[in-house]
Write a structure and sequence with these properties.
- The complex is a heterotrimer.
- Chain A is of the alpha/beta class.
- Chain A is built from six helices and ten strands.
- Chain A is globular and about 45 Å long.
- Chain A starts with a helix and ends in a 6-residue tail after the last helix.
- By secondary structure, chain B is mostly helical.
- Chain B is 61% helix and 4% strand.
- Chain B is elongated.
- Chain B starts with a helix and ends with a helix.
- By secondary structure, chain C is of the alpha+beta class.
- Chain C is 22% helix and 41% strand.
- Chain C contains three helices and twelve strands; from the N terminus they run αββββββαβββββαβ.
- Chain C is globular and about 40 Å long.
- The N and C termini of chain C lie far apart (45 Å).
- The chains are: A alpha/beta, B mainly alpha, C alpha+beta.
- Chains in contact: A-B, A-C, B-C.
- At the A-B interface, helix 1, strand 5 and helix 2 of A face helix 2, helix 6 and helix 7 of B.
Chain lengths: 229, 346, 185
């Protein structure tokens, strides 16, 4: 589907019954820790920032992206440290199995965005509940990094996956038009003992900017809103 | 001159953080991360070592990484950071090691001349720009480069100009010749190039003529014999299957491959005709299946081809006979339950 | 311009989606029907029809029915109609398996492998089925199962795909029951 159609759909965005950024908690999923130490595993933040050039192309900015990944990691660690939670940083891109978990979280996250946040196509059997899982395969993260939960962060300019292509016009509503660019993202907290996603949040902030420390702190704050840790 | 280029390739200064080159470097590093984890990579050490060994004969290779991508079609791509992607469809098409070496040398020459960076700059400056990791074509942003299609799209963003092609031809030829590969293989391999590859490497008659001239200027000497690619034999059946499924007209490709006399390649040509199904193709398919069975490495698949052909043409006795042979020659075939069903119905 | 956008938006929002009642007979085209299992929703949008429990991009049971000679299995955004492989009435089940593999590749699925090919009942008709392994365009490993029948030169096909991790194993028993419930006119 070409960009003109996507642009047209952006005009519809305010008309649709789309939920503004609102974090979701899974029903009856209280946070529990298996021991005295509270540790969560932070998957490599899946972030990519680019700028629109005068020529109309998207040029990835190495400096922006590196800052974004570093600042995101640092702010998450700081936020959680203030709550007495330690962060075990996982280099998930370096390992095929861990990488698969990140990809699975990306696919599940996109289904959540589509069906939970965009109300006209809610899944009747899930309704308004956050009821998704990554399955028992998450145990490998627990075994290697010794955390009870894992936090996944995805932030990109757009998503290209297949099943979504049929609904791409609708999926385009996941992108928020910003002056000069788009941004969309989500974060999820997964219980590594069950695989269940216990918290999910969509980033939908026009002022969100991961390029510098102050704005990054605000953006991460937005992203982690309602995080039950 | 060649030595200087090799040194330049080996030691690259870090680009400025906010430059286009840094942006490209980030994009490419991320692409390589995805590629390294891709389901489409062939991880067989024998195959990878073989391709790497040719690269190391051509140039200083310590800083280069070779990836073999399982996908049909002719393609080889050197990323600006020293990652070299080689499609298995390429390995299928190269008649001998010299052709493969020349193709690799040509791509390495582009890399050493930093042609991709020039093209990248040009692309950013042009309005109405096209493929940047598949951006404009499908309206998606910078996606994962984990599929052969996205790797090919990445390559499409590094299309070369005619002058870059001439430069790469010259440097590549010298590189391969210095490593002992017969220069005559260079013009030969371009005949194997398909439309997609030629889009990136514009190749008119003029260019081939220029290449021929360069070849003729090479000093006469004894060249290493051009052996056929050894480690690809176990993969032939699989790669042929992938080409046949492409739903393009594969008759030309397999006509070329069948020259080798290998049973599997003749089978491929038979299947190409059977799938194409134009007037007269059925008879040609049958003759090539039989030719495959006459080859030393008579592939059981040729019996299946004859069976499917006969079944499609309503010749039940012939189909029964052929399928029965297939079941005997390939008792563990993946589709044996289906073939047994055909036999029961015919 | 704004008006066209509005209509387009409303049209898309009116995508038909409803949950299937357990035991409900869903007619999925060309006289083919299958009995729904509990928990599935049917999504019908832009010519694509599929059933899913957990959502788009996760478990998807897609229906491609009434495919005639010269037609592709489906349309996919970004791929011109002429670039899609097409069904031919003379195709054998082996060829149709190849067609499914090639078509999924156009949908940006990768590393698609199919087999073992075997005869399977398609309602009261004779059909065939095969399993799939593949990856989505982000590289997520997936598994699948397909069942098909060609009658009178017209093809009906059901293809189920889901992430290999957890989702395939969780949903495939229900899919097997759906396949077993297929009825043809």
């Amino acid at each position: 589907m070409d960009r003109r159609i996507i642009a047209l759909l952006f005009l519809c965005a305010p008309l649709c019954a789309c939920d503004a950024a609102s974090p979701r908690l899974a029903d009856s999923a209280p946070i529990t820790w298996s021991g005295a130490a509270k540790t969560i595993v932070l998957a490599t933040p899946d972030i990519e920032l680019s700028e629109l050039t005068a020529g109309g192309a998207e040029a990835p900015r190495a400096d922006w992206t590196k800052s974004a990944v570093d600042l995101t990691r640092a702010n998450i660690a700081a936020t959680l440290a203030a709550r007495g939670v330690a962060v075990a940083a996982a280099d998930t891109s370096a390992n095929a199995q861990e990488s698969q978990l990140v990809k699975l979280n990306s696919a599940v996250g996109q289904a959540i965005l589509l069906h939970l946040y965009y109300s006209p196509i809610k899944l009747p059997q899930k309704g308004a509940a956050l009821d998704w899982t990554l399955g028992p395969g998450v145990a490998l993260l627990r075994g290697k990094y010794h955390g009870d939960y894992a936090l996944f962060v995805h932030l990109r300019d757009s998503y290209s996956s297949t099943g979504r292509q049929a609904l791409m016009g609708v999926a385009a509503l996941l992108l928020v038009p910003m002056p000069g660019g788009f941004q969309s993202g989500f974060a999820s907290l997964v219980d590594l003992r069950t695989g269940k996603i216990v918290w999910f949040n969509r980033l939908l902030s026009v002022n969100g900017d991961l390029r510098n420390a102050d704005d990054a702190r605000d953006t991460v704050g937005e992203l982690l809103k309602g995080l039950p840790l | 001159m060649l030595t200087l280029l090799l040194m330049a390739g080996a030691a690259r200064a870090q680009p400025q953080a906010d430059s286009d080159e840094a942006g490209l470097a980030m994009q490419v590093a991320k692409a390589e991360d995805d590629i390294r984890n891709s389901a489409a990579l062939v991880r067989d050490p024998a195959l990878n070592d073989y391709v790497k060994s040719i690269v190391c004969r051509l140039t200083l290779c310590a800083a280069l990484r070779v990836y073999v991508v399982e996908a049909p079609g002719l393609n080889v791509l050197a990323l600006p950071n020293g990652a070299l992607l080689v499609w298995t469809g390429t390995l299928l098409r190269m008649d001998n090691e010299a052709e493969l070496a020349h193709l690799l040398a040509h791509e390495l020459a582009h890399y050493q001349h930093k042609h991709s960076l020039d093209q990248y700059h040009r692309m950013l400056d042009t309005s109405g720009v096209v493929a940047l990791l598949g951006v404009a074509a499908s309206g998606v942003g910078i996606g994962f480069v984990s599929t052969p299609a996205s790797m090919a799209a990445l390559g499409a963003s590094y299309s070369h100009s005619q002058s870059q092609e001439r430069e790469a031809d010259k440097t590549g030829l010298e590189m391969a010749a210095a490593a002992g590969y017969d220069p005559a293989a260079a013009p030969a391999l371009w005949r194997a190039a398909d439309a997609d590859f030629l889009k990136r490497h514009p190749s008119g008659e003029e260019r081939l003529a220029a290449l021929q001239e360069l070849v003729q200027q090479m000093p006469a000497r004894t060249w290493n014999s051009s052996a056929a690619l050894p480690v690809t034999a176990p993969y032939l059946e699989r790669w042929i299957g992938e080409e046949l499924r492409r739903d393009t007209d594969t008759v030309a490709l397999f006509t070329h491959l069948a020259v080798s006399g290998r049973g599997l390649c003749r089978y491929g040509l038979g299947e190409a005709y059977r799938k194409r199904g134009l007037a007269g193709d059925a008879a040609l398919a049958a003759s090539w299946f039989r030719a495959a069975l006459a080859a030393p490495d008579a592939p059981p698949l040729a019996w299946r081809g004859l069976g499917l052909l006969a079944m499609q043409n309503g010749d039940k006795p012939a189909a029964r006979a052929a399928f029965a042979q297939y079941r005997v020659m390939a008792p563990d075939a993946d589709d044996r339950a289906m073939i047994d069903y055909y036999l029961a119905q015919l | 311009m704004k008006r066209a956008a509005l209509l387009l938006c409303l049209g898309l929002m009116a995508c038909a989606m409803h949950s299937m009642e357990a035991g409900e007979d869903g007619t999925v085209g060309n006289g083919v029907s299958a009995r729904a299992e509990p928990g599935f929703a049917q999504i019908h949008l832009a010519g694509m029809r599929y059933w899913t429990q957990h959502g788009t991009g996760l478990d998807e049971l897609a229906f491609y029915t009434g495919i005639k000679d010269g037609q592709p299995l489906f349309r996919t955004p970004g791929v011109r109609i002429g670039e899609m492989p097409v069904y031919r009435a003379r195709m054998t089940p082996n060829d149709i398996q190849d067609l499914v593999v090639a078509s999924l590749g156009k949908k940006k699925m990768q590393n698609v492998r199919a087999g073992p090919l075997r005869p399977c009942p398609f309602g009261s008709a004779q059909g065939f089925c095969f399993d799939l392994t593949l990856a989505n365009d982000e590289g997520l490993e997936m598994r699948g199962r397909a069942i098909a029948s060609a009658r009178g030169g017209v093809l009906d096909l059901l293809v189920f795909t889901a992430p290999a991790q957890f989702y395939f194993t969780q949903v495939s028993p229900a899919v097997d029951r759906i396949f077993a419930s297929i009825q043809v006119k």
